[in-house]
Amino acid sequence: MPTYLYWGEDDFTLSKAVQELQKKVLDPNWLQFNYEQIAGNQADSLFQALNLAMTPVFGMGERLIWLKETSIFQNCSDDLLKELQRTLPNIPLTSHLLFTTSKKPDGRLKSSKIVQDYAQIQEFSLIPPWQIEEITKQVQKIAQEIGVKLTPDALQFLAEAIGNNTRQIYQELEKLALYSQTVSKPLEKKDLTSLVNIATQSSLQLATTIRQGDGAKALLIISDLLNCNEVPLRIIATLVGQFRTWTIIKLYLEANEKDDTVIAKAAEINNPKRIYFLKKEVQSVSSHKLLTSLSILLDLELSLKRGAEPLATLQTKVLELCHLFKKS
Question: Among 174, 176, 179, 226, which residue's Cα sits nearest to residue 199?
Answer without folding.
Answer: 226
